[in-house]
Every structure is written in C-alpha cells, then in structure tokens.
Design goal:
alpha+beta
Amino acid sequence: RNDPMTPLPILLIHSAAAWAPDAPRYWPKYGGSRQVRLLDGAWRYGFIDGWDSGFDSMNASFRPSDGATPNMTSVPSCMDVVAGGAGGYLGPRGVGLFRTSFRSPAAGSAVRLQFQSCSFYCRVWVNGREVGDHLAGGYVAFALDVPADALSPDGGGENELFVLADNRFNATTAPMHTGGDFWHYGGITRSVELHAVPEAGPLLWRAHVVPSSSAVEAEQPDGAPAAVDISLVLSGVEGGREELKGQGELGGKEESGGAVGGSPRCGGGAACPAPVYYFSLAFDGGEAVARNGTASGGTVRLEGVPVPDAKPWSPDAPHLHTLTVSMGGQSVTERFGLRRFGVDKATARLTLNGEVAKLVGWNHHTQWPVTAASPTDEQLDADIALLRKGGANLVRGAHYPHDPRWLDRLDEAGILFWSETLGPAVSVANTKDWAFFMVHQKRQLSEMIDNAINHAAVFAWGWFNEGPSDHPEACPAYGACSALARARDPTRFTTWADDHKTSGACYEHASLVAFNDYPGWYSSKSPRVWDGFAAAVAEGTTASGRHTVGKPMMISETGAGGVYEWGDNATASKWTLQYQSAVIGEDVDVALANDRISGISLWHFYDFKVDNCGSTWPCHGRPGQENGTHCTYDHPPPTTFEELRRLGPPNCTAIAPTFRPGGTNHKGVLDFWRRPKPAFAMVAAKYRAARGRPTASESAIIVQ
C-alpha cells in the first residue's frame, strides 16, 4: 500500500473563543484583576544526556547557575521526540534544563505558576530560589506559588524562571511512571501559565461546577439537570495571604501547590469567625446576581443554583453554558454542561440524562506526527474530526490525564471522555506503599479532578490500567482512589480497565466495571467471550461476587493489529489489514448486540510509538522495542510540517512481524500519520448505525 496520504473529506471549524494573544487557549477565562498569561514561546535550553549520567535531579545543592542552557527550544514541546515521533527510534533519556524570564505583575505581589504538564519529574526556581517540585506524574497539571519576596521588588521587573525536567524512569523522582506499552514523553510538554495574586484578599482560583442531584450511585430525578453545585476555590485568607502547602514532606522534598486556603487564627490561637465572601454569579453572559458565603477548607460551596434557560448536554446536542464569578475585582469564567450519568435499574446499563446509552469509540494516546505529545491546535482539530467521522461518542484517555485543549474539543463535539491517572504496570507493592507511592497517586488523582471537573464530556474517573486487581491485598488502594473521587465528584463513574476480568477481586470499589481482552489476537478465543464476561458481571460470578450486580459493564480495550502497508496479502494472515478488520468487526458486533454491554472503546484509534522496556529502561541487556527496530522506510520520517507536506508520510517497505513490529503498536484503525485502514470505515459504519446517525452528517462538522 505505497499510495500517498489519503485525504478525508472533513470540515472542522473550532471557535477560538476570542482568546487574548497571550492568554491560555483553553477554559477557563479570566478577567478584571485576575491577570493570567502564557509563558509559552522560545526558552533557553540545555540537556544532560544519558540514562546513567550520574546527575541527581533531587540534589539539594543544585542551583540554576550550575545548569548550562546554551540552546533554544520551544515551550511547550517534547525534549525526546526523534524521527517525527515515528516508532522504532530511541529517544534520549536525561535531564532537560529550561530558562526564561517574565515581568512581575506589580510591586509587592506574589504569583502562581501553573504547569499544564512537566514530565516526568519537575523542579522549579524563580530568581535562583526554589519554589517547588512535582512527582505526581508528568501528564497532570499542577500549580506552584511564588511569594512576593522571591520576585523583583520593582513592579514590572524582570524575573528568571528556571525549570528542570527529568524524563528518566526512577521510582523516587517519577513514581507514577511505572512503565506501560507506550513512549512516555518528557519536558515541558504543555503550556505554562503565570497567574497574578492580589495583594489583599484571597485569589479566586477556580469555580468548580457540577450538575445538581446527579450522583451516579443515588436516586436521580428524570431527565437532565437544570441546576448546578458550585465550589469557589480560594487561595489565601481574607486580609492576608499565606503560602499554600500540599502534601508536606514527599520523598525528602516539600511540594508547594494545590488550591486550598487556610483558616486564620485569632488571639490565643483560637479560630477566627469564618469570614464572609461577597461575589456575583452570571450565567451565559447575563445579569450578575450578588451572592455571599463562608469558606470551609478554602472553598465556598453553593448547592442547587438554577441555570437560566437551561439546555442539556448530550452527544447529539452538546450545549454548553458559562458561569462568570466576580469577586474583589477578579473574575473567572468557567464552561460546563448540564447532563446526568446514571444506571438503569432494570438492565444495569449506563444512562445519560435518564436514557439508556450505548457508548462507542476508541482509546486515544497523545501522540502526533512531528509534535509528539505537544500537538498544535490544528492537529487536535483534525483528530476530533476523524473521531466524528468514525461515528464515535466515546474516547478513553489512555493512559494519563489529557491536554485541556483536547477536553475542550471533546466537550464541543459531544464525545464522552474517560479520564484516568498515569499508572500502567502498577504493582501490588505500589498499592501497599501508603507512605510514598499512594500519597503521590492520590495527589495525581486530585490534581486530575481539579483540572477536568468542569468538562461536560468526562463521564468517568479511572486509575491503575491493568493493575493488580486480582490480589485482594491491593484492593484498599483501589478503594482509596474511589473514595477520593466520589468525595470530590459523585457525578461521574469510578472505574479502571481490568485485564484480570472475572478474576478481579476489587470491583466493590468501582461503579462501572470495565474489561480489557483481545480475543482473536492474543488468544484463539472467539469474540463471543464478551457475552460470557457480561453475564458474569450481571450475575455476580466474578471473584468480586455480588459487588458487580447492578453495575454497568463496558469493554475498555479490545482489537487487533494491522500494518498499514500490508493490505494486498493473498491470505488474511495475522498483521494483514484483512485479519485486523475481521477480528475488530466481530468485537464490535458482539458489543453492539449484547444488551448487557454499555459500551466499547477499541484499542486503538491510530498506531503509536511504544517503549515496552518501561521502568526497566534501557532494557538492561535486552534490545527492547525502540532500539533501532524501526521498519525500512521509502524515505526518512518527516521531522517538520514542511517535510510532511512535501514528502508525505513514509511507507514501510520491510518489517519484522514481532510482538511490536517496528517499535509500533499497530492496532490503530489509522496509521500513525492518520491514514485510514479498511477497519476505520467498517467500524465507522457500525458505530453510526448503532447511534442512528446518517453517514452524510459526519462528512462536514462545525464545532461551535
């Protein structure tokens, strides 16, 4: 199949939402004295190469003046992308050193830095003073506070920001990066934000908005909600400001961050009366209504606030509302959707706005040609368009929290999203390590919820992909994650993708049961095996017993591999596109026909780069899957968009059909360069038919 890249007839228009030139191009929006700007752009850069260079990223005596940054790089970007992100090429592991400058917003004011991601381990200094680090996974957003006395004393003065990013697998610096069958990208891979902090009074950090009366495990009213519960997240206390602390001593270093305010103390150490905060709420740009409330734990909570002219969100009509909160001259505008997830009592099927739903779609990593894990807006738009063309109403975010720009587009497109923490290959020992690993796992989960809770598309919080759920001693860790997620947000399902299936012992902690299996690919089993799995969940015959009864079940992973260029084989042997289509087609048919299965997310949407050495990188004496294993191409993989336009995607002319041929997972229905395989059109037709969507409506899409 040495044909050039096949264009798809798709029109996608994504509204830029009138972003300011240096403002984040994702929600929320900020106004008034709530000054926020991106620090993205050209940064000075240096790299300490080598898995075993001997450089200690946690060395307390290290100073930014010790780090050489002789080169330039773009932020955001991936410091280990090679060959345009194509599989089979070994990217560098080491330590990236990044340096830039910013102006103080005002004399005597503190600032907050928000990193949408910094991978794997991140450590940050401002003007030579260390302000914090982050160990809770390289794919989740986190914030660090910079006190006023660390900044230039002159309003508008220059300040140096220095960031260390270590992309080496290490159980101390990167405990969440336990491995997994994909390339973990490193560096400052997403945007960096600078938030001004008011001189007096609290910082209005965020407004978390969830539909009222929408707990998935409780009795629910019929239909979609028309009111919301609002949590105003404040930093600092009235009349002053205090540095915010996170989990305390973590691995020998204290982490700053988190958006929780403290309680002021009065004479004799007694707690002061709770201050009253005055603010206003305005929905959809309408009239502002004055409100007030007291804070508990740094949060002002309002329940059952009616939304004027409420319109429900659904895959067929993804209507989105906005809420602007104004307080003390600051304003934050959040976007949200009114929808309710639940369970049908008669069938144990997943429901959306009271109606039984069948979810259909794909798993989706964050890998793109040229940019790897730091895609352009246009690349995000193109993948959303392809998902829509494929008839999807579901994406599972494999295997970590995803870019907020991606979640914005899923909200707009009406595509449900499963959001999970980083952590494939988690061990029993990890789940029993409450002093370190689980501290960071819970922090990562909380940070993921903080940053994704307002997204209408998110229907499930997940963790521990293919973890040790068959070991009862691991179940308390699953329970702790579930308890945290339910306490923070009971309106979504709690779940994980379980490859132990009926041997899973921890399902009492899930409100959605999900299985990974690959019949016809890793085994000779028929895809009809899914009928038996669904029956076991419904009848309570798994190792978790009756804890699965009455809970919805879905297929979180299944599929088969097919090499894009291997389409004209005389027989439908393994790795041919004919074989891939046959296996995937049967999987989809079973899932759509079985009324006990609430959904299916095929593995995977596109082919992607792997690193199966995982946390044992660089494979300790064995060659691994990234060390010179790429296929023979007709031309080198393009490394720039100009090369990609001029040369087109490379075509593989020879490949060894091993476990991961050419260092690539070939289970995509598109290849890495987004060229469709025959399975794409086949699955799209089945998905659209199941949803009652005409083919023509998917060829031109306008996202508002």
